[in-house]
Amino acid sequence: MNYAASPVLALHLPLWRSRLLLALIAGGFLLLAGRAVYLQGLNNDFLQHKGESRYSRVLEISANRGRITDRHGEALAISTPVKSVWAIPEEVQYSSQQRARLAALLEMPPQEMDKRLNDATSFVYLKRQIPPEVAERVNELRIAGLFQNREYRRYYPGGEVMAHVLGFTGADDAGQEGIELAFQTTLAGKPGSRRVIKDRLGQIVEDMESIRDAQNGRDLALALDAKLQNLAFSQLKLAVESNKARAGAIVVLDARTGEVLALANLPTYNPNNRSRMSGAQLRNRVITDTFEPGSTLKPFAVAIALELGKITPETVIATAAGSLSIGNATIHDAHRFGDMTATQVIQRSSNVGAAKIALGLPAEAMWGMFDRAGFGSAPRLGFPGEATGKLRAYKRWRPIEQATMAYGHGISVSLLQLARAYTIFARDGELMPLSLLRVDAPLAGRQVISPDTARKLRAMLELAVGPGGTAPKARVMGYRVAGKTGTAHKEENGHYAEHKYVSSFVGFAPASDPRLVIAVMLDEPSAGRYYGGAIAAPVFSAVMGGALRMLGVPPDAPLKPLELPPGGSEIKEGV
Amino acid sequence: MARISLVLLLALTVCALGLVTSQHKARKLFAELEREQEHAKQLDVEWGQLQLEQGTWAMHARVEKIARDRLRMSVPDAKRTQVVLPGTVAGENPGGGR
Asked: Which among A78, A161, A263, B31 has the fewest CB atoms less than 10 Å away?
């Protein structure tokens, strides 16, 4: 039977049936095509997203906090990753054996662990900041409902020695005190994230896009010299302990660059373990506390008098009775010196002499001197809580106030301001801007007094540590030293406390070409002696001697053992 | 005409296979790069930890204690110190004492 003879061909169907079928099929295809266009072209976000989530992942990129180093690159603060263990208490399941192991690894009693798990339902930290090795062993216990995340912890190898300069960071690695706070924006890293393609093994095979670049924090090189800092700290500690002082502070400046080479405070704390810490331990007395400096301010009054030509170093000032009455107040000296020259006023630290010199000055000029020396304004280190001190406007000075200010009462300064002000004498009349960071090209200072006056003052200050001065104990073998003692009554509730003193010493060496300025302060020494020349000067001497040796500064004086004047014959300054 | 088509088809197949292999290679290399970068990060962390360790061992107070107690070292006093200034004796260590 051939095809042409098929009886089916003989059938005649109505034409509309085939047309209908064609239309239906064409309509069906059109629908499919339309849907395809809609899904792939118009509304494609949803499916694309679904597809991507099968292979692409967003990864967090962690960023390190910058390291802090000393001027020679020695590490002072480093962040290193640690793990924190947290749990979803509802899901935690473990055997009693696992519980005991976990408690032992986390170094906490099992009862306390149970208490933590019972107190919360959805989230609780079991222990924060544990070393990665311990975290790994916790992981090996394979306890359900227990998780870990990565955090950074900051370590300070220098411990208590550097505590006040460096400060510390909180649990989230953000600066809370000191340099860590002052340079937070520099040190802090910015975590980033990126989208990648992962294969079925979890390996990253392709970078898709960088959502945010991670930025590691920048490293910071401080001006601090770790060795010198250690020397300053240990000497200060010895002095505070042997004099039973309530507190102590020391700062070492580079007279050439204005860098802060060492800065230490007592009492101090261990920044690696801050569980027991009091406000007194936290205080950075060098920068944030002010005190009435006492005689260490006398050189400034004498400097402006010399500058204005009111006196010469040889001008004789009569301090005859050792006391001077102004209105109904009386200024005393510790000794009766009789007539003496301006040089001797500094050398022997005569209150009456300084007061008489000050009274011959216009108040405005004296105020101007203090102001230009940086008293009454913050040193602008960028350090949190820098004290400005108190310098009242000259228009309201009474004569007695002007007289007492000449020997450092009625004015308050921070130890750092005091040390900086002495750069004027150490540098031929230039006040240096200070820096906590290493300075490669020294900034220019500001000329405050003429080089000639500065040199005269240097000679006077050198005599103050010589025999017949107030601080022979400040001398350093092999170097010419210049400096000034200060002993002041502490002010309490508006009155000067009878038996509470602040003893200080500020000085620089070598006097022929000053390299270092050191200021030492001891608060409320209570072991009997309280004169700056007796207790603060030896600290200065020990630190200065060691520091000059470390820095390899050539000696400018013959190297022969120092002879101290026989006990008790030291000149005591007026208090 | 048919022959040209055949040649082009062959070329296309080769190119397609080449693309697949190179993509695979690129992904393998990238995975390796990732691993190395991770390794670098780990080494950086380790370096930090080693610096910390060094800092702890080299603490000045500790070094000084060992020098004094175990090695019986001390700072020479004035009688035993001689300072040689640079320029005074040729070849001497500048500023060094002995």
From this structure: B31
Expressed as residue numbers, the domain containing B18 is 2-29+42-75
In a domain, B35, yes or no: no
User: CB contact, 8 Å: A567 with chain B?
Assistant: no
Distance from CA of B2 to the nearest CA of A (A): 33
Mutation target among A76, A205, A541 for the B interface, most CBs of B within 10 A? A205
Please give the domain boundaries of chain A with CATH numbers for all domains: 55-79+152-222 (3.90.1310.10), 226-551 (3.40.710.10)
A395: its two tokens: 């228009």
Residue B55 belongs to a domain: yes
Nearest chain A residue to B93, by CA: A552
> How many angstroms separate the CA atoms of A154 and A169, rounded?
7
Does B44 sit within 8 Å of A206, measured CB to CB? no
Is B71 domain-assigned? yes
Who wins on pLDDT, A448 or A559? Answer: A448
Query: What would the pLDDT profile of A221-260 be if each residue is shown by its tens digit?
Result: 999 999 999 999 999 999 999 999 999 999 999 999 999 9
Within-domain flag for B97: no
Residues of chain B whose beta carbon is less than 8 angstroms from a beta carbon of chain A are 26-28, 30-31, 34, 44-45, 48-49, 51-52, 54-56, 59-61, 77-79, 81-83, 85-86, 94-97
Is residue A206 within 8 angstroms of chain B, CB to CB? yes
Q: Does A478 touch chain B (CB under 8 A)?
A: yes
**pLDDT attached to residue B53:** 87
**A451, A470, A450, A217: which is closest to A348 by C-alpha?**
A470
Q: Does A554 touch chain B (CB under 8 A)?
A: yes
8 A C-beta contact, residue A393 and residue A376: no
C-alpha torsion angle, residues A112, A174, A289, A540 (rounded to 10): 100
Question: What pLDDT, in 10s, does the model give residues A378-398?
Answer: 888 888 888 888 888 888 888
pLDDT tens digits, A69-128:
989 888 888 888 888 888 888 777 778 888 888 888 888 888 888 888 887 777 888 888
Residue of chain A with shortest Cα separation from B51: A75
Predicted confidence (pLDDT) per residue in B51-96, tens digit: 888 888 888 888 888 999 999 998 877 677 777 776 655 444 444 4
Tally of domains in chain B:
1
Mean pLDDT rounded to a whole number for chain A: 85
Q: How far apart are CA A154 and CA A181, in angstroms?
A: 13
Q: Which of A60, A196, A87 is nearest to A145 (CA)?
A: A87
